[in-house]
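Deliverable D5.2: sample structural annotation.
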Amino acid sequence: SLGSSREHTMEWKLPSEEQVYEKLPWTRGALFNTVVSTAIFLNTVWLGIETDLHHPEVYENQSLDPWTVVNYCFVFFFCVELLIRIYSRTWWPFITDNWN
């Protein structure tokens, strides 16, 4: 009984109103959060590499700077993630969640 009580307290549950309105429950799952966390980590590594190795003058005459393209890809990913989370929870629960 003590073990089951301990397991129950460690399990995170949404308030009942939020459970009803949650449109995409997989956004709270481990896979989605792992993908987002990995993207955050890779973006951090990329920014560090870019800070050391990017020389804008090399790309002055080119229409596409590969460093900028990768940065835009990260921005696109994070914007899509933000829209998915807002859509899933609706705007008010999303804004009131301190993790966002």
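Annotation notes: Helices lie at 2-10, 16-21, 30-53, 66-89, 91-96. The two ends are 35 Å apart (CA to CA).
The annotation will be released with the project's public dataset once the embargo ends.
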